[in-house]
């Protein structure tokens, strides 16, 4: 169960090598969390991620999980929940893709959509059902400000995150009153392995800053968290710009 400050004792990270996922796990382990499951494709990177948390004193286990194989999700996640209650599930997997290339290669675009949206719908529903069955827990979903309004520069990625965001909000409404808390996290540009080599956008942030915001959101039982918070105002303005004006912006 969570402690009096809302910090989970047990955590499942879907996307076990995610920079934000690991930063969040490290922060929570430093507070209270003692058991961490890392779900991802078996790899040296997943093993290194597990070792990082072991070195911090957590009990860490890994489970094979592939976002692109929804038919395997029931068994993979069932294995985790069969071992005991999970206080928090962090849905942290996703791919950015290469917009210019993916526009010319539709199957690549489909892979982005299947990873970021279809895989998340599958894993999110299975996790939510398990949390509801145990009567408590939080499902934290990493969305993105890119989902607020499709931009020419990354509309494939942005559209997948828009779908994920809408799904997570609806799931939160469906679970209201059940003891399960759903929190949507909308970071802006995050300096991470995924964005390495890209030109930074304004109000860029770090995985550690996102992790801090997630912890605060858990304590407050927030439903939506923007990172940094100023992006809420910025995106509200951009979302309501006339399309002709928005189209001319260098975004």
Automatic annotation (TrEMBL):
Domain of life here? Answer: Bacteria
A Pfam family? adh_short
**Entries under InterPro entries matching the protein:** NAD(P)-bd_dom_sf, Sc_DH/Rdtase_CS, SDR_fam
An annotated Gene Ontology molecular function: oxidoreductase activity
Keywords carried by this UniProt record? Oxidoreductase
To which protein family does this belong?
Belongs to the short-chain dehydrogenases/reductases (SDR) family.
Q: What's the protein name? A: Short-chain dehydrogenase
The organism named in the record is: Streptomyces mutabilis
